[in-house]
Amino acid sequence: MVTGLPVLLSVPVAAAQAPDFAREIAPILARNCSGCHGAAQQMSGLRLDDGVAALRGGYSGAVIVPGNASGSALMARVTSQKENFRMPPAGPRLDEAAVAKLRAWIDAGAVWPASAAKAGGAKGSNHWAFQPVRKPAVPAMGAEWGRNPIDAFVLAKLAEAGLKPSGEAPRAVQLRRVTLDLTGLPPTPEETAAFLADSSPGAYQRVVDRLLRSPHYGERWARHWLDLARYADSDGFEKDQPRPWAWRYRQWLIEALNRGQSFDQFTIDQIAGDLLPNATLDQRIATGFHRNTLLNREAGVARAEDRFEILVNRANTIATTWLGLTAGCAQCHDHKYDPITQRDYYSLMAVMNRTIDDEIDAPVEGEFGPWLRTQADFLAKRREILNKHRIPELEAEWEVKMRQAILNPGKDVEWDFAVTACRAMLDNADKLLLMDRDRRPERLARRITAQFLSSAGPDIPRDKEKQDRVKKARGELTELEGAFPRLSQAMVVQDDPTVPPAYIAIRGDYKRQGLTVEPLPPAFLPAMKTTGEPARLAFARWLVARENPLTARVIMNRVWQEMFGRGLVRTSEDFGTQGERPSHPELLDWLAAEFMDGGWSLKEMQKLMVMSAAYRQSSAARPDAAAKDADNALLARQSRLRLAAENIRDSALAASGLLSRTVGGRSIYPPQPAGVAELGYGSRKWVESAGAERYRRGLYVHFQRTTPHPQLMNFDAPDSTLACSRRRNSNTPLQALNLLNDPVFFEAAQALAVRVLRESPAGFAPRLNRAFALTVARPPSARESERMARLFDQQLGILAGDAGAVPQLMPVEVEGVARVEAAAWAALCRVLLNLDEFITRE
Amino acid sequence: MNVRQYLELTNRRRFLGRVAGGIGAMALGDLLAADTNPLAARKGHFTGKAKSVIFMFMEGGPSQMDLFDPKPGLQKWHGQALPDSFTRDLKLAFIKPSAAVLASPRVFKPHGQSGTQFSDFIPHTASCADDICLVRSMSTEAFNHHPGQLLLFTGSTQIGRPTMGAWTVYGLGSESSNLPGFAVLTSGAGTSGGATNFSSGFLPSTFQGTPLRGSGDPILYLANPPGVSGLTQRAGLDALRDLNEEHHAAVGDMEIASRMASYELAYRMQSAGPELADFSGESRETLDLYGVNDETSRPFATNCLLARRMVERGVRFILLMHASWDDHVQLNRKLKRNCDITDRPTAALLKDLKRRGLLDSTLVVWGGEFGRTPMQEVRNTQEADNAGRDHHPNAYSMWLAGGGIKGGQVIGKTDDLGFNVVEDPMTVHDLQATILNQLGFDHTRLTYRHMGRDFRLTDVHGEVVRKMIA
What we know:
Chain A is mainly alpha-helical. In chain A, helix 10 crosses helix 11 (about 245-260). In chain B, helix 6 packs antiparallel against helix 7.
């Protein structure tokens, strides 16, 4: 064991002159060093009050080399003339006598008597979130209020503050609330009518069960998870290349949530699904979670640096998503407030270190058969095209030149540039190009051919005949690929044992390699079981181990946040000492324990929450409670929540009847103003989706990282850089302009008018009723009806003097309705789609 | 208080008075309190000289040794590789350190009282020499575009942090109540950074830059949809307000009152936006000064004039981007083209601000994310005049004017070959610290707590460059 180490390391040289450790050396270290390198803190990972730790050194490596004082960093530091480098950094420098003693002690073997060793090990923490999850007893609850154990905890806290809960929200509000929260869509008027007509016991529960079975449930909760997964449809950074297959991960996610996959398996699949024995296709696709990191394909980028940043991003994402830790600070130094050290941080990063990116065939239903039947034909035709244009010989010449430039850079500027450009676009370019041609798998060979055809080096453009051949082959291949069935692809990770071990990057600088580290969870948390499985898989199992105090709490808190508008821990991204403490610690623990003990079922826990009386309360203001609890942390009422960006779009499309309810699939390109996409590099064009694609839900909108769709950004969608644990809720004039004037919302207003006129009996009142039912799931009040009637009359008056506006407001004829009246309805519907209530979950 | 401000204030009161009946006295008080409007004008840590910033971002990295930093020393090495001792540790994007040196064919002359040297490609800018503080000693950490742009605007090379404009309106709010506080104007091509150059990062989205366009809607979604006349819009908004007010009375959520205020502001923007872009009140002389009617410079000139008009209307931070100056090849042709587009309008903006008494309170910053190498880059050895320059982070030039910056001076010096800074080095974080200082901020105290720590524009770096300040 390590306790024997100091003895082994000590070399008995010139023992007669060696200073006595306890009497002469220990006091120097204690007086000058232990403040920063002692029991309380170990800056740069160095501890000088304990023999084992001291001889092990800090993050940069050993500082004491027994027998060699002049080769010891400790001596260089204490004797340096350089400010900021010399130790100790403040106060008087060591006097000559002290320096001489240290030198003599190290030269004599740096004997550190075992009796002087302190107990090592990680520092513990008594912070609440790092303590084991126990299941508290449910408080007693009277009969007057409450439906399940959640309410008992809530009521107990309210009673402590002398507050009473609010009454139940109107039933229509309850239905709209739970429908929006579980599916992200508003209820249809028919669903509302059916619910209001069903006064039998269990009516609400039946609605909840129906919603949890809805395929739209997966869409709603996938969007939440995509915020954490920092999902986007492009690389980010300058080139910001689209990722045509990013959606395949999203598709898996929606399906996994819809089928109610247990959260522990859901976690394992995403972290390390590829490492499971006999991993299924789904399990491999799930690892696409890691692939949502940004990638800088700018040609001059140092690949090693970008790779480092990717690993940093992956470590931070895991820490935020599962552990509720703001680990990012520890990239450069030990966390100032939380017990997470730099070593912990890089150990976490090491979990992701041995991964390489790959693309795999990931057919969705119906793709495989047609592909299989036509593949032989496709490959034959492909070969035919390549041979016809004698591409293999051109490619071979190109490869020779490329290899020369890779192996002997600086000889030919043109080929140097070709290599740089190729590295940026072709992942693992050097490896692929230097691989023996005959040993290259077909898949990789095709990737190289594609790269050659898109960027054929400096020589070919100068030879018109060759240039034509390349151009023709490229065109014909594109056409061929379009004509044959293809398999969807998935971006995944897999292990690569050849990757060198991870190391601590000194001050977060990837070029400054410190100690190597093993893939391990933070040392202040329960240890990971070493099962002989690959580290990433063992780590995934550790994340969802019963003794992990964080994951279940963090996840339950976030689900709660989505249902109540704020988490029990308001800072849902930070469960560390700088985060806020839970408003209801027992409730949080009870939920976490129930979640784990009940088999990690998200749907079960969500059901429990939405069935609670606390959830079903009215959200109207409570002036009596506001004085004691301004933020409504104690839940004397529900909260009004503005809908998420995507769900605002969904609601407008759903109300107007335009919504396409197809679940899953590729990303879509709804209209966006000209000039937005062009703001980015290469002024990429945004080609609008046609047909039903145009009307799909907001979570399918293509997210181009450097030029995201303005409607998403106006309504606080995250920028998909880092895991986003809670969205903000801003309220800006740009949102108003967006809802008023965006063609998508204007078209929805027009369609809503047409729908109302077609579906409702004639007459102002029934039509207005229908319009209200479709938008806010309730009938208008008398005053609202009166006000809208006045608007209707005003509008008819305005249009009477502006006949040209009529066909613009209402581009279609509606049978049995005067065009001008229909146009006035479009204007009314536009108002309804802008109501605060319409974009709010009450 | 001028007439315009008076009218705005009374309009605001009228609006608030109208909704007051529905929301009650307490709510009205809240609405009037500055802190309910995140863009309300407020003071920095101290009173800064600059009230507005126009950041003229020349995307891609203009060549300093062909515009601002004459290097006759390059002649001696022209066409040859430099000794290893010069190029050791040099980080380059495309070329190798052994690439041949490219001397500048440009002619430099001293200008103004100060005698600052500028190249013959930018005679108009040179005519403002005595207002310009030229920094020849800039350096940056990043040698690729997007990281360089992120570092310049957010203080970090990674995506996700707030940009300089967002920090500014977060700190100071805006003097304009009907235009965005942080406006973005673009010309030329798209930029590497795209929207990340004006993102609010983890600050509330209220503080993000709003792109204004020279054509189409000046602001996204500003124009009413077809068929929606001014009357229809107003009638609809009145009904919307009444219905929202009705609902507010029922549920008592202040967010509804804020939303009503947002809609009224949006409505005011609908008239302020087109008014901003309407140049009919500008004199012929002014239009010609900028070159608004010149085919070559029109888009950039239009943006410069818009920038001045925004400053007059109280817009706090204007990011005026022109892309791209990334002249890896054909430097002589491409650099001339960009100078032809931008030189006259840039000088016009300075002169126009000055004669209107606005330059003292408007900080103008001009520059790119890095400079260009003393060595050449050639991608086609068979094309005549194919040579360009690669990215150079170690030493490059930027300039500032107005906003309390002392004009007619040069800060810093580079070595004879323009490789490295040898005097008064200035980093991107120093530039940021100085800009914030001119706006009235101690850059170390303008912070925002996020993910467990306080962030600031200058990260953990930056020193105010006192020499630059008048």
